[in-house]
Each structure stands twice: as C-alpha cells, then as structure tokens.
User: Which sequence fits this backbone?
C-alpha cells in the first residue's frame, strides 16, 4: 500500500473529468427516452426505447465514476473506490431525473403500457 496521502486536488479533478465525460451518454439517453421530437410527440412523434435508455443511464454512471475508480485502484484505496461507486450511482440517478426517466427507462408521464407499445 502506498503511504503517500491521496491528492485531494487530483481526486477532485478526476471527479470533474468523470462528470464531463458522462455528459455524452446522458445526452444520448435523453434522446432515446422519447426520440428526436421529444416527449411531447410533436414532429415525428414520440418513440421510446426503454432498454437503450436504461443502458445509457448505466453507462453514464460507469463513465462518471471510472476516472476516480482507476485512481483508487492505483492507490489501492478502498475509500476512494467507495466514493467512485457512490459517484456512479449518484450520476445515474441524477441523469435519469434530469431526462425525466423512471426506473423502467420510460418517461415518467407515460404509462408502462404506452411506453412498451411505443418502443421499437
């Protein structure tokens, strides 16, 4: 185990890097939850894809926590690893909240039956 203390500025920079990189999958999840036209159904109509939305939300969390997790692995720090897991879970839940997803990967204002019917 490395006796040097963990660099707080480096850990903070890795958290910020993870959050910035996680914006990509979160943005894609926002498009897959309702399609290009959005959840109002205007234009081309609403087209939900709950499976891909859940997958992209999971990828958002993994990407957000990965830089800190790699640093935790190098430093062999269980505390940093726990923070990385917490960051991953928090990023997934917050991204789902921001895009309006429920736990099924469907828009919160659409019933389960309608969501599954609209999925490809």
Assistant:
């Amino acid at each position: 185990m490395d006796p040097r203390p963990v660099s707080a500025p480096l850990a903070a920079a890795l958290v910020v890097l993870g959050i910035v990189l996680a914006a990509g999958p979160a943005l894609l999840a926002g498009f897959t939850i309702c399609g290009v036209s959005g959840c109002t159904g205007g234009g081309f109509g609403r087209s939900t894809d709950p499976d891909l939305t859940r997958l992209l939300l999971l990828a958002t969390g993994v990407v957000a926590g990965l830089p800190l997790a790699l640093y935790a692995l190098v430093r062999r720090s269980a505390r940093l690893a726990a923070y990385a897991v917490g960051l991953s879970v928090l990023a997934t839940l917050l991204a789902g909240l921001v895009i309006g997803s429920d736990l099924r990967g469907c828009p919160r204002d659409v019933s389960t039956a309608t969501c599954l019917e609209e999925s490809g």
In short: The radius of gyration is 17 Å. The chain has a mean pLDDT of 86.
